Amino acid sequence: MPRGPSINGLSIGQLQSLLQSRLGKVQKLEKQRNRWARKLDQIDRRIEQLGGGRGTGRRGRPPGRGRAQNKMSLTAAIEQVLKGASKPMRVGDIADAVERSGYRSTSANFRGIVNQTLIKDKRFGQAGRGSYQMKK
Fold first, then answer.
1. Residues 54, 37: Cα–Cα separation, whole Å
2. Which of 110, 72, 108 is nearest to 91 (CA)?
3. What CATH number is given for 74-134 in this structure?
4. Residue-wise pLDDT tens digits, 8-53
5. Virtual CA dihedral for 37, 38, 40, 45, nearest 10 degrees?
6. Residues with Cβ < 8 Å from 108, sequence gap 6 or more?
7. Spatial CB neighbours of 63, under 8 Å, sequence gap ≥ 6
8. Residue 110 pLDDT
9. Cα 20 to Cα 12: distance, rounded to the nearest angstrom
10. pLDDT, tens digit, for every residue of 89-120?
11. So where are the chain's domains?
12. In this structure, what are the phi and psi dihedrals at residue 118, rounded to the nearest 5 degrees?
């Protein structure tokens, strides 16, 4: 962004004038931004009335990419899977079984999250390299 003229050597009156000019420009741009924001809100409401999803939010998140809602926690879902298993399971198999049970996640690395949960939770014990079971 180009800078304005150098303010070195300007009198106080000239500096005040320059400041007033810039404040006026800022106020004008803020009014313009508020007008556009109101128009966008109207468009979003109209889209919702027609049954469409909201567009990209002001924070840049695409629609439908919020946090997944589940009826049970991840640890409860893992516990349910491991209790139903007759032998120790590998991390990838546990992650697949948890997802098949209805647990939803938007994570790109769900297997890693399952692995961290298995490591941290004291209810799960390691039966071998990469395989887990319920502690006895």
1. 14
2. 110
3. 1.10.10
4. 888 899 989 989 999 999 999 999 998 998 888 888 888 888 877 6
5. 140
6. none
7. 53, 54, 55, 56, 57
8. 93
9. 12
10. 999 999 999 999 999 988 889 999 999 999 99
11. 11-60, 74-134
12. -65, -40
